[in-house]
């Protein structure tokens, strides 16, 4: 019962974080969008998508692998200290590698040369990923502090946006403020985690750190291939479209992210260690938890997707203004992605990874990403940002189908019609059996 209360508290905390992350921007976006326009948004969002690859490399999937290890050994303080020390050292190494790759990319990657200054600002923000202790809080299921910090950040950031952004050329303040806040927050969280959980960092040899990097490569490769059919859509579109079209597409993606960040990510982040604990009891117990949780995730993401479809024109016009009317059709096309991603998250992250089916997870995402990348080039080239939007939907559906049949091959069945009944969902939430 205590674990379930922790889960509810953590989901609520993460939900508040994401609401704060988007409520405050909803105050500033109508003001900012009318000043910088689709071109400014296109430049910032394109650079953010590009720098996302370096963030991915530095993070290296440790928010999944380290969280899993900590959640399954939450009482072993020495073991947790070892995990933290190894992850921190590994991320320093990965950051140094990223610095070299970033310098090379500036010279050879033409689309990013549209505004190198924005790319540099965002790359500096990767330091926050090096010191991020999210996996510690997530593994120990203690996430309330994130809600408080994000609330404070939201207030300060909102005030600064109105003070600093006055003309179209001021768009650089958007990534600059984001970078500063990310670094400061993660420095605070790192110190706070050390004191609250008595975490002690110890020097780890480069050999040990490289061993960890090699051992955890499968999850990292999976996160890379996932990015090939998610964030790479924006990067590929940049080769065939101007900043304005990239702005139309990424603006719609922004609304999609609101739903994903308010529902999918809080659920995923809080559920992962909770379900990991369930699998540490037994395989059957863990799978049964998944069966009960799946309908809840389904209904939440389904109704969110319907709302996104219905209110797409109203939302775009209200928040961004008529300059972004072309974003409406894109938002309608991708409106059901929260539902699709919610299902793939349960199949892949919650079930496959917690069961240790890392290779199965990698194979399914790899196949989908290769097909998605090729299809994205064709659709972006011939149909622009509309083609990119349809490609996004097609590949997310393909991922869900591949994962479902991969689980069937492993003789894992997670659909149970009885758990989809409203009465049973209420009983599940109350932690009672019918």
Automatic annotation (TrEMBL):
Subcellular location per the Swiss-Prot or TrEMBL entry: Cell membrane
Topology term for the membrane: Multi-pass membrane protein
InterPro entries listed in its UniProt record: Poly_Biosynth_Transport, Polysacc_synth
TM regions (residue ranges): 12-31, 43-62, 92-110, 116-137, 149-165, 171-193, 218-241, 253-275, 296-316, 328-348, 360-379, 385-407
Domain of life per record: Bacteria
Keywords recorded for this protein, A-Z: Cell membrane, Membrane, Transmembrane, Transmembrane helix
PANTHER family recorded: O-ANTIGEN TRANSPORTER-RELATED (PTHR30250:SF11), PST FAMILY PREDICTED COLANIC ACID TRANSPORTER (PTHR30250)
Protein name, entry field: Flippase
């Amino acid at each position: 019962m205590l674990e379930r209360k922790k889960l509810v508290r953590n989901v609520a905390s993460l939900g508040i974080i994401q609401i704060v992350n988007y409520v405050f921007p909803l105050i500033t976006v109508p003001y900012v969008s009318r000043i910088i326009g689709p071109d400014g948004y296109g430049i910032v969002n394109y650079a953010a998508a590009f720098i996302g690859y370096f963030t991915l490399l530095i993070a290296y999937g440790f928010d999944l692998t380290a969280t899993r290890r900590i959640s399954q050994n939450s009482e072993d303080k020495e073991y947790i200290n070892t995990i933290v020390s190894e992850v921190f050292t590994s991320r320093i190494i990965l950051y140094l590698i990223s610095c070299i790759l970033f310098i090379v990319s500036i010279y050879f990657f033409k689309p990013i040369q549209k505004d190198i200054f924005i790319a540099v600002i965002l790359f500096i923000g990767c330091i926050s990923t090096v010191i991020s202790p999210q996996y510690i809080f997530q593994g120990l299921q203690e996430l309330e502090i994130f809600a408080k910090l994000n609330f404070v950040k939201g207030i300060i950031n909102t005030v600064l946006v109105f003070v600093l952004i006055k003309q179209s050329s001021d768009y650089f303040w958007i990534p600059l403020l984001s970078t500063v806040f990310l670094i400061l927050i993660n420095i605070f969280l790192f110190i706070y985690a050390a004191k609250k959980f008595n975490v002690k960092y110890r020097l780890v040899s480069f050999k040990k750190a490289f061993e960890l990097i090699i051992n955890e490569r499968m999850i990292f490769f999976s996160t890379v291939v996932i990015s090939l059919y998610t964030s790479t859509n924006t990067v590929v579109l940049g080769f065939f479209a101007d900043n304005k079209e990239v702005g139309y597409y990424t603006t719609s993606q922004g609304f999609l992210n609101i739903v994903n960040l308010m529902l999918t990510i809080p659920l995923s982040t809080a559920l992962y260690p909770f379900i990991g604990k369930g699998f540490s009891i037994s395989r059957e117990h863990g799978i049964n938890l998944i069966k009960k949780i799946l309908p809840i995730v389904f209904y939440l993401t389904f109704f969110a997707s319907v709302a996104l479809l219905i209110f797409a024109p109203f939302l775009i016009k209200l928040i961004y203004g008529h300059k972004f009317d072309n974003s409406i059709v894109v938002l309608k096309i991708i409106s059901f992605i929260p539902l699709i991603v919610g299902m793939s998250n349960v199949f892949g992250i919650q079930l496959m990874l917690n069961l240790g089916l890392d290779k199965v997870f990698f194979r399914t995402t790899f196949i989908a990403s290769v097909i998605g990348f090729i299809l994205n080039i064709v659709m972006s080239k011939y149909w622009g940002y509309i083609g990119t939007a349809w490609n996004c939907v097609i590949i997310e559906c393909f991922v869900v189908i591949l994962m479902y049949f991969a689980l069937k091959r492993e003789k894992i069945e997670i659909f149970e019609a009885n758990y989809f009944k409203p009465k049973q969902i209420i009983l599940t939430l109350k932690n009672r059996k019918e």
